[in-house]
Amino acid sequence: MEYMIDANALEKSFSGTRALKNVSFQVKKGEIFGFLGPSGSGKTTTIKMLTAQLTPTSGSAYVLGVPASKLKEGKYRKQIGVITDNTALYVRLSVYDNLKLYCDLYDVHPNRIDEVLRMVNLTQESQKIVSKLSKGMLQRITLARAFLHEPKLLFLDEPTSALDPVNTRHIYEGLIALKEKGTTIFLTTHDMNEAETLCDRVAFLNDGEIQLLDSPKRLRQQRSDLTLTVELTDGSRAIVPKGPAGAQELFQYMSANRVASVWSNEPTLGDIFVEVTGRKLS
Ligand SMILES: Nc1ncnc2c1ncn2[C@@H]1O[C@H](COP(=O)(O)OP(=O)(O)OP(=O)(O)O)[C@@H](O)[C@H]1O
C-alpha cells in the first residue's frame, strides 16, 4: 500500500449544493496530516467520506489501500480510530467501564486502560460516571477510546476544541507518542498553533476546495522576506538581510555584545491562510 489515504477528485453535494469540490490529496504512513479550514469549509464532510459514514457524490477515496466504503467491515474498522461529533459513550457507565467495553470489542488487554487514561490526564476520573463529566473530560475520554487499540490510522475532528492549555498539551504529547509508534493521523483543526505543533503537512481548505498543501515549514519559508529581526539590548530593533551584507551588520552587533534576540521574519500559518483564502480561520 503506497498511501494510508488516497483521495481523488472527491465531491460531495447536499441537495444540489457542493460542499466539497474536486478534493485530492494523499497521506503517507506515519504522517500527521492536518486539514485546516474555517467553519463550514468541509472538514467533517471529508472525514465522514473517508470513514464510510458518507458516500461521495463523485470521486474516489482509498483508505488503508482499500475503497473507503470497505471500512464498515470489522477487520478494517479495528485498524482505524475515528473521533467526530458522535462520542458513542455509555453515559451511565464509568470512564473505566466504557474503556473496558472497548477493550473487549477490540481484543485489547485491560492494562492498556491505565496507559491511555494517563495520556489524556483522566486517571483521577477513572471511576466517574460519564454523564457527570465536563465537556473537556468527555472530549478526553473520547480520545482515550480512539487511542486504546493503537490504530494504524486515526481520524480526529478538532481533537482539542474544548480543552484548556494543560490538557491540550497532554493530548499533543499523546498524539506524538502514537505517531512515534507508527500511527498515521489525519486531523482537522482551525487552530494554526495546533497545526504548527503537530502536523508534518497541512492542506488549507476553503469553501470545499484545497487551496494549498505543504509542510508548515516550507509554507512559511517560501514566504519569508529573507530578513532577520535583531532585537538589541537597548530594546531597539534592526531588520537585517539574510545575505552577506546582513552578516556584516549582525557581526558588528554581536561583537559589541548588543544582541538580545534574533529571529527570521516569516509569516505565520494564520497569515498565509488569510493571504491565500482571503479569510480568517476562526
Ligand atoms: N448532512 C448535511 N446536510 C446538508 N448540508 C450539510 C450536511 N453536512 C454538512 N453540510 C454542509 O456542508 C458544508 C461543510 O460542512 P462541514 O460540517 O463539513 O464543515 P466543517 O469544515 O467541518 O465545519 P466546522 O468547523 O464548523 O465543523 C456546510 O455548508 C454544511 O452546512
UniProtKB/TrEMBL annotation:
Keyword Nucleotide-binding carried by entry: yes
Highest taxon above the source species: Bacteria
Residues in ABC transporter domain copies: 5-232
One of the record's GO molecular function terms: ATP hydrolysis activity
Keyword Phosphoprotein: no
CDD domains: ABC_DR_subfamily_A
Protein's UniProt name: ABC transporter ATP-binding protein
